[in-house]
Design a protein that fits this description.
Elements: H1 13-46, H2 63-92, E1 99-106, E2 109-113, E3 119-121, E4 123-127, E5 131-138, E6 143-147, E7 152-156, E8 162-167, E9 172-178, E10 190-196, H3 198-207, H4 214-224, H5 227-230, E11 249-251, E12 257-259, H6 262-270, H7 294-310, H8 328-339
The structure holds dinuclear copper ion.
The site of dinuclear copper ion (CUA) has 9 residues, from loops.
Amino acid sequence: MGSLSLFPARAATSSGQVDALYMFLVVICGVMTVLIFLCVTFFAFKYRRKPGDRPPKPIHGSIPLELTWSLIPLMIMLIFFAWGTKLYFEYYTPPKGTLDIYVTGKQWMWKIQYPDGQREIDELHVPTGRPVKLILASEDVIHSFYIPAFRLKHDVVPGSYQTYWFEATTPGRYHIFCAEYCGTNHSRMIGWVTVMDPVAYGNWLAGATTGGSMAEQGEKLFEQYGCVTCHVLDKQGRCPSLRNVFGHPVQLEDGRTVLADEAYVRESILNPNAKIVKGYHRDIMPVFQGQISEDGLLQLIVFIKSLAQESTPGTAPSLTPARPVAPEAPANKQAGGKQAQKQ
Ligand code: CUA
């Protein structure tokens, strides 16, 4: 298929997998269509009424025949479902140790932030041979982040985070499209992803200017917004300490246990009363809805993530008083995994 210019270039491990499914679908549909039309034509001639023919005796159905022509196609079609589901879950469930890149869509551009603090507009740089996870956010309406060469796309919905991951294989420059109509200049919401080998990527990262890593920028915001007065890092404050929270289960006042992921942290900043941590109170923290930009939110999240990465299982006990929460042991294991996400 590679030489056929009908298809975009293949530049990630996902490309071939999606193409294989697509070709399977085309071939099966082609075979089915041809078969049906051949049968229609053949039977039209074979059973055409000839002079002198009498009308045949009507047949009122045949269970074995009907089951056969229903069940066999159903089984074949279910292969699409199973195969598609497998691919879907594979690419929307990032593995551990990904390189995280933050993408914010707004009318009509893509803003990209890297953990080390580099920022770009409508340009995404990724290395080959390493799983890259995109965390997608929108500042206004629904966009869709589509990289045809990777055969991957996901809607970017305001008010939530979406993610997918890929592993690029072939250096080059490939299109990024917005694949969801988002207003006047939707068709110009185009960018480029540059795939580089790891050495070139390292050089590129080193050459790009930064105003501090995302975590450092998040820490500044953390102080600027006064979060630090209540979320005291290593002792009991009016609000839960945020050390070693990210990626761990959190027990809530209403008895539920939730995972402290990007969406949880985001919600807790914008609408703190939505989920109250066990042992703490409502209406202590101000609502930051509309106060912080999407970019700022992502920086704060990376900062809070970094608080869980710094401490290794050995240093964890110091937090127990500040976080009267859940099982520590499995939580620490997760922290170890998360640690690899960012160097
Ligand atoms: Cu953004 Cu279409």
